[in-house]
Structure formats: structure tokens, C-alpha cells
Amino acid sequence: MSEKNPVALLTDAAEFIGPAIVDLFALRGVTVLAADPSFDDEKTATTFQAGRANVIPIRQTGSAETVARARTHHKEIDILCAGGAHRAIKTTASQLQEDVTRSFFENLVMEPLAYLSYLVDGMKARQYGRVVFVSSSAPIGGIPNYTAYAAARAALNGAVRSLSMELSSSGISVNAIAPNFVATEAYFPKALIEQPDVRAKILSRVPIKRLGEPSEAARAVELFALAESRFITGQVLSVSGGWS
Questions:
Q1: What is the per-residue pLDDT for 86?
Q2: CATH code: domain of residue 196
Q3: What is residue 169's DSSP assignment?
Q4: Any idea which residues carry the catalytic annotation?
């Protein structure tokens, strides 16, 4: 692996802050294997790739199949950036049956860990790897009525410390970023935010008194994935304007 030209696998690349991560990685000379379920459609994949240097769209289905497709382009993958995608759907205490909570844990915990499992042996062999989970600060600050989402995110955050202790001697760092209050259509639609009363209510909870930009969250990923930060591992970094 050349640290000047690493290869990254980014899952759910078209979701949330994925496009901002892709743009930043490509700018830094990273070859980005950008996986997303929407890339089943060739037109969608081509549109996503347009104007993005060093980006290869990958059809994202199961973790094993997606990694296999990625390896048809590059056998050695140096960086894994994964976190799963699942909307923060309201789930009150009376709704926490297994059939409701299962999808949160499958998408937000089991899937990211499975991606790691398929890549870690190669990273160990090369004595180099950067793992960055895109999680959430929801379990850090707490979100009433969204327990299923927060619990799943907490599980992924909790895995970071144990994985870092297991893998650090193999030259692999494991960290996570935990965003909240980032201005994307998925979580804070423009039409909603432009309503003065709604915007005021949301910003009242953010100490910095504004929403974050996707590019700012991507910079946190950059810190763990690309900077000379090998000595930093096992961290969950809140990116939430001081909320948590």
C-alpha cells in the first residue's frame, strides 16, 4: 500500500455525508470504491461518478458480494469507511418489539462489522489499515422516542474500543465519527429548515447555533482515514456542534 495513493471502500456512498466523503477522498488522491444500493441502476451510478476523479461506483448488495465486486477493481483495500444506512425512525417504548428493532441492528451494526470482517485479514497481512465507522451521536446525547436507532448506533460505537484494542498491534486503527445536526436532506430537509419556528427550535439544541455542513463531517473522517494519526485509535468523535 502506498499511503500517497490508498484505496478506500466507502459503503452507502450516496447517503447522508457519503458524497462529501467521496469528494474529499478523491481530492486527496484516494481511489474510492463507492458502494451504494442505488447503483443497481447504471444511470444513477454514472451520474454519481460524473466530475469525481478516482471514483469507481460499486453495486452494494450484501457485504460479501459488495467486497467481492470491489476486489475486482482493487484487491488490496486500505481504508474502510462504513456505518450502514437507516433513517432515524421514531420508535417509542411500546414499539420496541423484535420485528421493529431488528432492521436497525442489521443495517447499523451487523452490516458494518461484516464489511470489516471481510477486509481485516488483508489489512493484517499488510500491517496497515484504517477503519472509520460513520455512526451517530444520538446514543451519546440521547434522543427520546428514537430508542431503536440510538441503541443500534450505541452498539457500533461500543465495538470501536474493543476492535481497536484487538487490531492496533496489526497496524490497524479503528475509530468512528458520531455526527448530528448535519444539514442533509435525509435528516433536515431544506423545506423544513426554512420554516423559521422549526429552525429556531432545532438550533436551540445546538450550542454552536447552526447546522453543520456535510464537508465538516467529512473532515472528521479525513482525520482518522488519511491524516498522520496512527496513534489515534478507539475513539468515537462527536461532530454535533457541541450538542454531545
A1: 84
A2: 3.40.50.720
A3: G
A4: 149
